[in-house]
Each structure stands twice: as structure tokens, then as C-alpha cells.
């Protein structure tokens, strides 16, 4: 037994002792340093660049400008490639750009012997611009006349229009008995704030380009770098060491193509490109700011009859994942609640002159869930319905099958999650108790539920592989294409392999580094897919590996394979459970037997054509100081149904991290810009990422369903916990004060304003 | 087509441009440095060691002495392990030794922040010895009374006695018609002199020991280090980058176990241990000095009736490969010539207080061939037989089957090799022309033949594996356990894979680095086995890989797999040869097809239960200046039958390098010691390795037989060319002067002496 145990992380010792090697730790002492020159306007063109003075700086090796790079464009989103061009990601970037699309766009790069020389040179480069008034909001951008389109082939700046309709909305709204509710909600632009910045180094080896990078998607990055350089994919090799967090930002290919290009410019020498925190905030990816309008027709008894969502996503300067994210958001809207007659969605992803929106933990669902769960609360209160009963009455049921995607809800612990949460927070006492308060300090309880898919099927390809190699001492190497990004993937994969083979965990040595030259293929860490999809690859490969061990044992022991099994690193009689030979002894024979030596390994790939739904809920109890506009979290809990937990302790840690991300999203985090599109707070001091001092105790609980589609009964967990926190707090604040905050983040500044408006202070 | 073509080395560009990464290039900037304290006596015991002063040196981190290491012993020979203890290598070493067995034995080690501090500390360590008179020759050692045995469990210092008898020797010698010949020959101790010294660095990662080392045998080294540390094999990981030559010295595990132990002593920090040239000469391995007595009974017509060999091999201080080498030598004696009645062999491998004999290119055969081919020449001249006709009359014939090993001579181009050599050197004119010369400057032609096995079967296990991985662009990664050690293995393996799959060579990317965590298992580079045994693994794996490509193509194209083939990276109709789909297009489908995505890889291992025999000859024409005792090589050629040549240009380069090694062996190289066993010339200046200035033009030719047992008709080539050079020169000198030199090397010093004795000067 190993699956289901809270074993210690396999990388705990290395990481706690500071020995784990990250990208920068591996960079050769002789590497050159690259720095990027970013535009100081948000929209326009580079007319000319003067580099003469910069070139004179001692230690400068090479300067490349936007006039020196290939003219072809490439996509950066970390999606599997498609052989169908209409499903390929949007190729809208060059390595450096003459057409400037946001404040901080990449227009030149310096390669120097050290960082000081590179920085000095940057300051000496003179750029002449032709500037336009930047378009900062979707509305501005969709109706712009002042400036040329942000991307020539999108005249109205609309990257994508996503919509669907189930039932006949126009018919449904004619129903005379309906009570109508409308709400407008908007969410802010936030950033991932992974501890390790985007960093890579690149060099040529035997005419091939080697890139060592902090990425969630080494195999996809290999393809994108090759596309950017215009070389065959096999000419690029990507190596991924331990990484210090990604949260979706590193599910995009960021500066690696430029890094590789710069190495080629200096004859294949090793060049390092590490972003500053300011650059990470401005020049990598963000969570989309989305404006959402909801309209719902309900019967007096609380049955939802028809719903409509309209969404406007601010994509920023480049496409990245954009089109996929708002369409995922409206799918999420479709999933969590059901309706009697019709549901309709209309969403636009719009280019603006702001930093680029991309993948971030939750992929559109935190935005839509904030809107949806705020809206549901408002409806319940207006109809004097119990807000929880109202939700459960309309929530997705076990066995739900999506009419478009065909995916099924194979397991649901939503009801039990809600019950556990209510009990923990003492809902039955506190919800009534906190109604209609007065006075300067008030309390409230609030909650929000969510549902979340597992992986990307059928929207995109789901495939993964694994390899197992027997060692001379009977232990095994486990090699994955799936990536450890701090979430504990290496540990759970090791547990899965041990479980299926019949080994103790210490006999599985996982190869943590991915190297696209030799690691099995996997699309990488995103969409909470790895324990589900890559887990299937581990299970299949481990079964194959076990079969080969047993077949060799059958040869040695001269007994039928069918009578053998493996338990605690021993080949046993499957009936009597007696040990027939230990794995160390078997391994020595397998390697060195003069009659029959065989190197026992197994490698296999799976294609996952399934998906399932996770559920969860957040309950929060808050106290608000009206005069200070200060919210204090008195108690908060997330309860999740993520199917079987491979490692409960790691699962809990996942939820902790994700809840704190949800708290920042709800209360403090926001990237701000001035009227010219210049970022105002691209640093950890002004951005207001919650620190441990700002973080209350976080309670976590689970309802373990056994999902029949998961390799070990498991389903998605990595992203979901971030989703329900903001609406739970918003709804608690609503109960405490009667004021509905429909715009994130709910900062003291906004609170004071609204309290004044409403005469609370 | 790729096999048989003289394609450029796959690593040529990296190596010529100095970009190829060797062990030291990869060592982290922060590594600590280890240096070893060597004994200054050749025989005795360490009574005490004072390290107090040394510890005070700034930068010294740790000092370990022979009193601090585990008491268990371990073997160092690079042989496959055996599950039968009687066939395991001799475990006669500790990490550091209190019992000193040669001048330079390892008695303590310093770990410091830099080399200067380590060296300073070494000089401050005080050692008190109990010294014995060293035993420097086998005869001394076998009959020693003055000193205790060199190894307690070998009272008479005899490591091993190897013998055999075919027919009844005692009967055979009774034949009255026999003409008897006897000869005594001895060969010197030489060293490999690879350019890159023995070097490694070691560190702990996640409680496992990682050792990066310049070795020919990473997988075997993993096992030996684990044995030395007393941990399970899987707890050790060995990484082998490009290496700067080995020639057999790196078929032994040298200082890696001590390096790993020292890293453990400093808490798993990275420690580098690089030997100086002096240490490489004295403290690694050497070619055994062997004294050989031959006795042959011949009929007047030149038919050999019976033969006997007696050999005494000077093993030096530790067992290493010793016992195997002299037994290989007498097997070689048995193979090259046949006899009417009987052949007998009696060989002893004897411990002495000299540096340790180990594996070196030829593994005993250069020694025995010098004796044998000198002896054959002497017999021919005494009987006035044509020396070549006499040899061919008695040489091994096609189809020969060894009575003990059961291995068969599947192919023989010996006759054609000799004919080509005779023609090149103009034997028919020169051999008669150079008879009975007078005057101060004389010329001579001489020759020697040899035969050589391929790999180690059935004496030891032969197994190898390979892995192929399809890239997203349709090219393939080839991953071998077999090692590139400068000989061109990576190139020929790539050619084999391209040939069998139907790819062009540029579509095979070989992974040159071996990493025991992930590289397929292979015992490594030795016994000229890799193109033969590992070549079988490439062929089997490539065929499997091709089959999987064709089966996926059959799915895509909806045609039977049997109608498909691969040519020039295209799936073709096997009859019409029309291209049906290119590999790049197929690969994109295989990775990204939404209906059927499959990660195409292949991995397989082979066990080789066969062996075959290579042949060759060296012809040399020399000029000797009697007064100066100087030999000038006027012309020299090696002609080889190594079966099909995978890459003729690389094969030629192999022969060039090996011939120059043979020239040094014949004329100048010898490790010298004083009466106390102290090495006198352990450096490249005094040792007299021939430089390019000393090396004449080297002619090379081949006779390409097709060996039915070789994967591509190939058989051994790496070691053989070093074998016949010395006897050819010795025999040429005999013809020029009438003087038989039976002791190597034939230095001017020895020549002058012998000429004086014989009144030539």
C-alpha cells in the first residue's frame, strides 16, 4: 500500500536543505548574460533604434534589435499542437517587435559578459517611437478609431467570440411566471507571483539548441522554440530541473525562444536570460480581467428556468491562451448549475494594450465563479430562500452529461462537502445569528461552491507516457514526461508506481528532471491533469513492468506466472503469500544470469479520452470594521471532492496554497496601470500579495469519492481550491453589511467608498 | 545506406571546436577538492598517521586516513558481476590501506576548498611506517621469505594458476622425428597514457550518491561503488560524459569509490578527485609485464606437432583483471596456430610490490604474440623455411572450433591480409634482398600475424541494450548503455540505427552521455565488443522501432503494414517505392492525432552467446644504424580482417592509433623502478611515449570478410592493431642484423649492448 498514504515528499530533503538544483544553479560559470529592452510606450511603432553608444560598453558582446529578427510569428500557449491549422494556437509574436502592443513590449536585447554591462548597455540604447493612444479596456478596444488595430488581422481587436445556447433562450424568457435577476460583476488582473522568476539558459551542442528552463511544459516548449527559430523540432532539446512554482505562467513559452535566438547570435555560446520581478509582472502573463453580466429567470420556489451570461475578457497585447480561457469560463457557468429550460452564453476576448492574459490556476473559473456565486447569493436573499438549499436545488447532479463536450459527472461529493463545511463553520447557528446587525463591528458568514473539470479532453489532446527501469539492486527508476512544479507530482507518481508494482516507496527512484531528448512524452503540468492523465500512464507502465518482473521470475522459479505476485519487493506465491525470491536477488539474475540475462524495463503511453468533474465549497466567517473598512477572516474552510486522495497531506498543502491565492484575489491583489498603460505596482511591495502575516489559519477537509474514470479513483485538485474563496468572502461581507461588492479585489479603499455611499459610515 | 560509409564522426564538430563537455567541464564551481596521500614505501604497514598540522591549513575541510575507512574489501575489475561467488572478481582493496603493497599506495586523503590547500595539507601529514623489502619480480615473490605475503590469503603470492592441455603433451614429445625449439621472451610494464587523467566528482542527491566520472563502464562502476560503500546498487548513480581515452585503464574502477566516500564524509557536498599524470602512471593500472617460455616440436617440413607455453605475469599489488589476462594470453597462444598432436600451457599470475596490472588494449595478446611471432620467425630461419609459408601452414583455419570455449572461427581473411601486406611491402624482392647484409647501416623486413576474439563470451556474460525515441519532427533519439570513449562508438551506432530503420544519418540524434539512472544497461567499452554485442542491441531495437513506425503508418494510411517500408525518412510503398507519408508528417500525427496518439519508442536488450575471430598482420621495413643503435621505420602496414567495416575511415583511425601504441611498445615505452620499487619515470617526459614526430607514416589496409555472427558482418577491431607491430619490427631487426631481441622494448640502449656482445660494433 502506498496510494492514500501521507508519505513525505520524495524531494523534501533536497528542497529543505537547499540542495535541490534549480535552473540558475545549473547555469555554467561562463555563461553570457542577456537583458531585454522594453518599450516605454504601450502602443505604437519603433521608428529607429540607436545602439552605437551601447556597443561601446565594456563587456557587451552583441545587441539585437526588433529590426534584426526573423519576420515569421509563433504561438506561445502551452497547448498540445494540432495538425489542424484551425485548432492551432494563434501565432502573433515575433522574437522582438517593431509594433509595440503594451508598455514593456520587447524591442531589443543585449548579450554581455555580465549583468552590469548588459544593464549599462540597455540604458544607452536610444529608441525613437511613433506612439498611439493606448486602448486599455475591451470596450475602448472594440470601438477604437483613434489607433490602428492591435493585431492587423483583427480589425475590431476581438481575438475571439465564444458562445453557446442550450434550449431556446428567447422562448424560455417568455415564461410569465419568472422572477428576473440581473447582476454585473468584474474581476481584476492579477499575476501568479511564483517565487522563481522566468529564467532559462541556452547553448548549442552539436548544432542542436539546448535550453534549460523553469517551465511546466518542456515537450511543448521544445516545439515552440523550434517554431520560433524555424528549425525542425528535433533540433531543440529542453531540460527542466526543479522549478520554483508556475501556477500557469510557466504553461506559456515566455523568453526561451529569444534566449535560444540570442545564443545562436553569439555562435551558440551559453547565454542566460533571467527576468527581474518587474519584468515577470509586466512581460510574462496575467489572469484575465473579465467583466461578466448575468441574467437569471427563477421560479418563486427557487427552480432556475433560464440563465444567460455575457462576458468581456481583457486579453491584453497578445493571444497566448486567451481565447480558450473565457470559453472555459462559460463552460464552467454551464456546468455548476442546471436549469429547466435554457441557458445562453456570449463571450468576447478582446485585445488591449495591456500585459498579456494567459493561463493561471483555475483558467477562467475563478472569474465566472465569483460572478455566479455572488449572483446566486443575491437571488437567494431577494427570494428569502435558504442560500444553500437554493444552490443544491439547482446544482449539477451525479451523471450529468455535457451536451457539447459529452463529458460526464462520474462522481459527486458536493452535497457532503457542503454539509461538512456547514458543520465546521456552524452555519445553522451563525447564519441566522448574523442577520440584520448594527454597530461599527459586524460579522458574517458566506459560502460559494464550484465544479471543475479534470484535464482538457475533449477540447484538446490528452496523452502521457511513463518509463520504468529495473536497477541492479531490484529498485526501479521511474521516468515521467509530466513535471514536478512544486505541487508534489514526483511523490504521487512514485506512490502510484509502488502501489501498482507491489514495491515499497523507497524502491522507486523518480527521475525529477525532464529532458526532451530522453524523457517520455507528456504535455506537462496544467489543467490539474497530471494525477489523472499522467497517472494513467504510470498505472499502465507499472502493470507492464510488473508483468515482466513476474515473467522473469516464472522463468527462474520454473512455475506458472499466474501463480506469482509482488508484495513488499518480494515475488510471492499469490495464494500462500510466501516469499519465493526477493527483488534484489531477481534483479541480479536478470542482469547477470548466463543462461538468460534480460534488462527489464517498461515504457508506454496512454491517450485519455475521458474527463470528470471535481467539486468543492468554501465557507468563510468574517468580521468587518466599518470605520476602517477592514475585513478580518475569523474562520475559513475549503472542503473538496477530488476523488481518492493519493497523498492526503500533499492534497491538504495544495489546498492551503491555493486558498491563500484565493484570499489575495478576494482582498488585495491587483495590477494597476496609469492612463498610458504603464504599470504602477509591478513589484511585490506595492502589488499586495498576502504574506504569511496576512493569512489566517486555513481549514481544509475532503470528501473522498471514488471516481471510476480516474486511474486510482482520483480527479482534479491542483487548481480548484483557489476558486470559491472570493465569493465566500464577498457573500459573508454581504451578510455582515447588506452591501454587495461585485468588483474584485474588495480593498479597504473600495469598502470605505461603498460604505459612505450607502450611509454605513 | 549508412553502414559501410565513411561518414563524419557525429561528435567531430563538438570535439574539434572544444565544446564537447568532459568530466571536469561539468564539475560545479563550488566543488571541494580531494587529494590522496600515497605511501613512500612499496611494502609494509602504516603504524601511525599524524594529521594535526595538516588540519590547521586554511581551507582544509576533512582528512581521512586508512584507519578511518570501512574494513570490508571490494573488487575493481570492470567485469560483469556474477551470481556465482567463485566467478566474482577478487575483492582485495579497501578505500585506503594500512597494509602497503606498492610505492604510492593510498593511505590518506584530504578534502579542501581548493587544490592549493589540499596539497599543502598533504605535505604536513606525518606517517610512521613498518617497512619490508619489496618483492618486485614474480620469481622473488613466489619464493619470498623476507616479507609477509602481499595478500594474507595468498601465502605464496600467486594470484592465479591458469593451464590447459590439448592432446597428450608428454606422449607427443616422445615423437623421435621432432626438431625442438625453445625461446624465452619478456615484455615490459607500460601504461595507457590516455590524455584525460582519471577524474571524477561525487555528491549526494536525495540520499543517493551521484558520481560523474571519466569511465568506460558506468553501469559496472555503479555496482562497484555501491559494493565499496556497502549500499544497495540503486543508491548510486554514475554519469559518464565524453571521455579523453581509456584504452582499458578506465575499464577498472579507479578512485571513484574513494571519491564517493569522501563526499559522504563532508555531508554529501560535491567533491572532485582528479589524478596528476604521476598518479595516473603509478596508481591506476598498467599492462602486465609477462615472461614467456615457448617450446615447440616441429617436423622438417614445417608442420608443428606439439607446443608448450609457460608464462609468468607480474600482477603488481592488487588483483584487478590480473587472473583473466594471462589466461586470455594462453588462449590466444592456443588460437593463432594449430598443431598435429598436443599443446600445453602453464601460467602464473603473481602479486608483487609494483603498480597494479590491469586491462589494456589487447588484454594479454600483445605479450603472447610478441613471444609467439618471434619464436615462429626463429624456427623458420633455423629450418630455412619461408617464414610466411611456415606460418600459414600452421595458422588457424576457417571453421576452427575451440575445444574449451566452443567458439568458432566463422570468417577468416588472414591469407588475403598477408598477401596484401606482402605486396605492399614488396616482400618478394626485399626479403631475399636484405639477407646477409654487412656495413654500418642495414635494412630488414619483418612481419607478425595475430588472431583476436570478439567480446568475452563464453568466459563472461555478454549483454547490451538500446532505446530509440521518436521526436516530434520524425527524427529519433538513440540511447545506448555502450560508451563512446573516443573510438567512434556513437557514430557507428548511429549508422547502424539509420541503416536498419531506413533513416538518413542526420535523423538519428545519439545521446552520448550515459547515466545509469536512465541509460539502457550495457557492460561497457572493452574486449572490442561494442560494435559486435551492442551492435546487436541497436539492430534489434531499430527493427522493433521500425515495426512500430510502420504499424502506426498502416493505421494512418489504412493499408496493410506488410506493404510498407521506410527509405530516406519516408514511409514508402514497398513495391513501387512511392512515398506515402514523410516521417515528420507521421510524427506529428503520432504525437497529436486526436483519434490515436501514440508515443513511439523502442527498447530492447540482447544476450550474445557467440563470438568470432578477427585476424591481421603487420609488415615492417626498417633501417638500423649499428653505431647509433637507432631503428628507423622505413615503411609499415597493418592489414586487418575485422569483417565488414561500419565506417572505413573510423576503422582506419582506430588502426593508426593502435599501431602507434604498438610502436611505443616495441621501441621505447617502459615504466622503470628502483630497487625499492619507487617509479623512476612516471611522467610523459621520461616515459618516452612516441610523439607525432617519432611516428612514421602508418599504412593501413583491410580485407572485408562478412562474418555471419556479427550484426552487420562485423567483428573486433578496437584492440587488435596494437598486437602485431612489436614482433614485426623485432623480426625485421633480426633480418637486418641476425640478432634476436627477445625482450621489449628494443631501445637503443639494449641494441648497443647486444651489438657489442655479438661483435657487430
From TrEMBL, chains A, B:
Keyword Iron attributed: no
EC number(s) given by UniProt: 1.17.1.4
Pfam family membership, one: MoCoBD_1
Leader sequence segment: none
InterPro entries for the chain: Ald_Oxase/Xan_DH_a/b (IPR000674), Ald_Oxase/Xan_DH_a/b_sf (IPR036856), Ald_Oxase/xanthine_DH-like (IPR016208), AldOxase/xan_DH_MoCoBD1 (IPR008274), AldOxase/xan_DH_MoCoBD2 (IPR046867), AldOxase/xan_DH_Mopterin-bd_sf (IPR037165), XdhA_XDHase (IPR050028)
GO cellular component terms, A-Z: xanthine dehydrogenase complex
Domain Aldehyde oxidase/xanthine dehydrogenase a/b hammerhead: 17-133
GO molecular function: iron ion binding; xanthine dehydrogenase activity
Domain of life of the source: Bacteria
SUPFAM superfamilies assigned: CO dehydrogenase molybdoprotein N-domain-like, Molybdenum cofactor-binding domain
Keywords from the named record: Molybdenum, Oxidoreductase
Stated name of the protein: Xanthine dehydrogenase molybdenum-binding subunit XdhA
Taxonomic source organism: Zhenhengia yiwuensis
Amino acid at each position: 500500500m502506498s496510494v492514500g498514504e501521507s508519505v513525505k515528499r520524495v524531494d523534501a530533503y533536497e528542497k529543505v536543505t537547499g540542495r535541490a538544483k534549480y535552473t540558475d544553479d545549473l547555469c555554467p560559470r561562463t555563461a553570457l548574460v542577456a537583458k531585454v529592452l522594453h518599450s516605454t510606450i504601450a502602443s505604437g511603432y519603433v521608428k529607429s533604434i540607436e545602439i552605437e553608444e551601447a556597443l561601446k560598453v565594456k563587456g557587451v558582446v552583441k545587441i539585437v534589435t526588433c529590426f534584426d529578427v526573423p519576420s515569421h510569428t509563433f504561438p506561445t500557449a502551452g497547448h498540445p499542437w494540432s495538425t489542424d491549422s484551425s485548432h492551432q494556437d494563434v501565432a502573433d509574436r515575433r522574437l522582438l517587435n517593431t509594433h509595440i502592443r503594451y508598455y514593456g513590449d520587447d524591442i531589443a536585447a543585449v548579450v554581455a559578459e555580465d549583468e552590469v554591462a548588459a544593464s549599462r548597455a540597455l540604458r544607452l540604447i536610444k529608441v525613437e517611437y511613433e506612439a498611439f493612444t493606448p486602448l486599455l479596456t475591451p470596450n475602448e478596444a472594440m470601438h477604437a478609431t483613434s489607433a490602428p488595430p492591435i493585431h492587423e488581422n483583427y480589425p475590431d481587436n476581438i481575438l475571439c467570440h465564444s458562445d453557446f445556447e442550450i434550449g431556446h433562450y428567447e422562448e424560455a424568457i417568455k415564461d410569465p411566471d419568472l422572477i428576473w435577476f440581473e447582476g454585473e460583476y468584474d474581476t481584476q488582473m492579477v499575476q501568479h507571483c511564483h517565487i522563481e522568476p522566468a529564467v532559462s539558459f541556452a547553448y548549442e551542442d552539436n548544432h542542436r539548441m539546448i535550453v534549460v528552463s523553469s517551465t511546466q511544459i518542456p515537450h511543448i516548449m521544445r516545439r515552440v522554440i523550434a517554431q520560433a527559430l524555424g528549425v525542425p523540432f528535433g533540433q531543440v532539446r529542453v531540460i527542466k530541473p526543479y522549478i520554483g512554482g508556475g501556477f500557469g505562467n510557466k504553461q506559456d513559452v515566455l523568453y526561451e525562444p529569444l534566449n535560444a535566438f540570442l545564443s545562436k547570435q553569439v555562435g551558440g555560446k551559453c547565454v542566460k536570460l533571467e527576468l527581474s520581478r518587474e519584468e515577470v509582472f509586466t512581460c510574462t502573463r496575467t489572469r484575465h480581467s473579465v467583466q461578466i453580466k448575468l441574467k437569471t429567470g427563477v421560479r418563486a420556489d427557487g427552480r432556475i428556468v433560464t440563465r444567460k451570461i455575457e462576458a468581456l475578457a481583457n486579453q491584453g497585447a497578445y493571444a497566448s491562451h486567451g481565447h480558450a480561457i473565457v470559453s472555459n469560463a462559460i463552460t464552467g457557468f454551464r456546468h455548476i448549475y442546471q436549469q429547466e429550460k435554457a441557458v445562453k452564453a456570449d463571450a468576447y476576448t478582446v485585445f488591449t494594450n495591456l500585459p498579456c492574459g494567459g493561463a493561471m490556476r483555475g483558467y477562467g473559473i475563478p472569474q465566472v465563479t465569483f460572478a455566479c456565486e455572488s449572483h446566486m447569493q443575491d437571488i437567494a436573499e431577494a427570494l428569502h430562500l435558504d442560500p444553500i438549499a437554493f444552490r443544491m436545488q439547482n446544482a449539477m447532479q451525479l451523471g450529468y452529461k455535457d451536451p457539447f463536450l459529452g463529458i460526464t459527472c462520474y462522481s459527486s461529493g458536493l452535497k457532503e462537502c457542503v454539509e461538512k463545511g456547514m458543520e465546521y463553520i456552524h452555519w445553522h447557528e451563525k447564519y441566522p445569528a448574523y442577520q440584520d446587525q448594527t454597530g461599527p463591528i459586524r460579522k458574517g458568514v458566506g459560502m460559494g461552491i464550484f465544479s471543475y473539470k479534470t484535464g482538457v479532453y475533449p477540447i484538446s489532446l490528452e496523452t502521457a507516457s511513463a518509463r520504468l527501469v529495473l536497477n541492479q539492486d531490484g529498485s526501479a527508476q521511474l521516468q515521467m514526461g509530466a513535471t514536478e512544479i512544486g505541487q508534489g507530482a514526483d511523490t504521487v507518481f512514485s506512490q502510484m508506481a509502488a502501489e501498482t508494482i507491489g514495491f515499497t516507496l523507497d524502491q522507486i527512484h523518480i527521475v525529477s528532471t525532464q529532458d526532451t531528448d530522453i524523457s517520455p512524452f507528456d504535455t506537462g503540468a496544467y489543467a490539474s491533469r497530471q494525477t489523472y492523465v499522467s497517472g494513467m500512464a504510470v498505472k499502465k507502465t507499472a502493470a507492464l513492468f510488473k508483468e515482466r518482473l513476474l515473467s522473469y521470475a516464472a522463468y527462474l522459479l520454473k512455475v506458472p506466472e499466474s501463480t506469482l505476485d509482488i508484495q513488499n519487493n518480494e515475488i510471492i506465491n499469490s495464494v500462500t503469500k510466501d516469499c519465493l525470491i526477493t527483488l534484489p536477488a531477481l534483479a541480479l539474475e536478470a542482469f547477470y544470469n548466463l543462461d538468460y540475462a534480460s534488462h527489464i524495463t517498461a515504457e508506454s503511453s496512454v491517450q485519455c479520452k475521458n474527463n470528470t468533474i471535481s467539486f468543492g465549497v468554501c465557507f468563510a466567517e468574517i468580521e468587518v470594521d466599518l470605520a476602517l473598512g477592514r475585513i478580518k477572516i475569523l474562520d475559513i474552510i475549503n472542503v473538496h471532492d477530488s476523488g481518492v486522495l493519493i497523498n492526503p497531506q500533499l492534497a491538504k498543502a495544495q489546498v492551503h496554497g491555493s486558498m491563500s491565492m484565493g484570499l489575495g484575489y478576494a482582498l488585495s491583489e491587483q495590477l494597476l496601470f496609469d492612463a498610458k498603460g504603464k504599470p504602477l505596482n509591478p513589484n511585490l511591495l506595492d502589488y499586495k500579495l498576502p504574506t504569511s502575516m496576512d493569512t489566517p489559519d486555513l481549514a481544509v477537509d475532503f470528501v473522498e469519492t471514488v471516481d471510476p474514470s480516474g486511474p486510482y479513483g482520483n480527479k482534479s485538485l491542483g487548481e480548484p481550491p483557489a476558486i470559491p474563496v472570493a465569493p465566500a468572502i464577498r457573500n459573508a461581507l454581504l451578510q455582515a453589511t447588506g452591501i454587495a461588492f461585485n468588483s474584485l479585489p474588495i480593498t479597504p479603499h473600495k469598502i470605505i467608498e461603498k460604505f459612505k455611499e450607502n450611509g454605513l459610515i
